[in-house]
Design brief:
single chain; 188 residues; alpha/beta; Rossmann fold; 7-stranded mixed beta sheet
């Protein structure tokens, strides 16, 4: 099972990633609106690559980033200094410190392929979402690339759709993310 190594922190925010997956534009593609409201949960937030822009876009809402690695959260907190509608929390892999049915938008970017028990993980995400809550998924396309996880560790778009639909989610749309990533938007 491929897990991200925190020693590769610089890979999480670099000019190439910003070129192919600009965080603000990517969040807008999923439907976040400027001066929006609601609560956004970035699951496996890493350095806050999407959490911080979400807090800025949802200026009348709030953003929460959760991660299993304390060193990621420390880095994210430093980057978010000055924002008052954002918080970062340490979580366990299958247990999030989030109130049930309190989240309007959740995001899972390049995380699902790292999870062993995907059904258990998706059930925990579902628990946090309100009745019309949406989940944004970004994953590596299951094709050979010169970077990213090995192809046999990647999860296809069809597999993700099947997993979420079998857990009671409805596919809303496909989102064009980048030449190496696909996006899917589901509603609870």
């Amino acid at each position: 099972m491929h897990k991200f190594d925190p020693k590769n922190l610089k890979k999480l925010d670099n000019p190439t990633r910003r070129k192919y997956m600009p965080p603000y534009k990517t969040l807008e593609k999923f439907g976040l609106k400027s001066k929006g409201t609601g609560t956004f949960l970035d699951i496996g937030c890493g350095i806050g690559y999407f959490t911080i822009p979400a807090a800025k876009i949802l200026s009348n809402g709030r953003a929460i980033g959760i991660d299993i690695l304390p060193e990621m959260l420390e880095h994210a907190k430093e980057r978010a200094e000055g924002l008052n509608n954002i918080e970062f929390k340490l979580c366990e892999e299958y247990k999030f410190p989030i109130e049930s049915e309190s989240i309007d938008y959740a995001m899972l970017s390049n995380v699902l392929h790292e999870i062993e028990d995907k059904n258990k993980y998706i059930k925990e995400i579902k628990r946090t979402l309100n009745k019309d809550g949406q989940i944004f998924i970004i994953e590596w396309k299951k094709v050979e690339t010169n970077y990213g996880p090995p192809i046999d560790h990647r999860i296809s778009q069809e597999e993700v759709i099947e997993l979420f639909q079998s857990n009671g989610f409805k596919l809303l749309e496909y989102v064009e993310v980048s030449k190496h990533h696909y996006g899917l938007k589901f509603i609870k």
